[in-house]
Amino acid sequence: SWVAASHDDGQSWGSPVALPFPSPRDLDLECDGNGAWIVAAGLSYFAPLLVTRSTDSGENWSEPRGIASPGRAQEPGGGPSLATTSPGHLTLAWSSGGSSGATTGRDGDM
Hints:
3-stranded antiparallel β-sheet, about 35% strand, mainly beta, about 110 residues, 4-stranded antiparallel β-sheet
């Protein structure tokens, strides 16, 4: 999967940059309100959701980390979905076959 940025309301786009994980089934990108980009991705129905962060418009990404244990992995069509609730605070939601699957945290946690 790839990401590209526009700094002129979509009139032009920078070169695409690869995300730091193989082709995910589902992904969502959100800006944290402080300039960082967060991507949450599900690689398969049975794998943990992965989260990565960029502070330079997608040029570089943090090492992806699991945000949910395999026992709480997403169901088909079940996420992930990121939302900025206030600057620096994000909510991540997804559907799960077991316990509820939602977490919140400051972007430094994600």
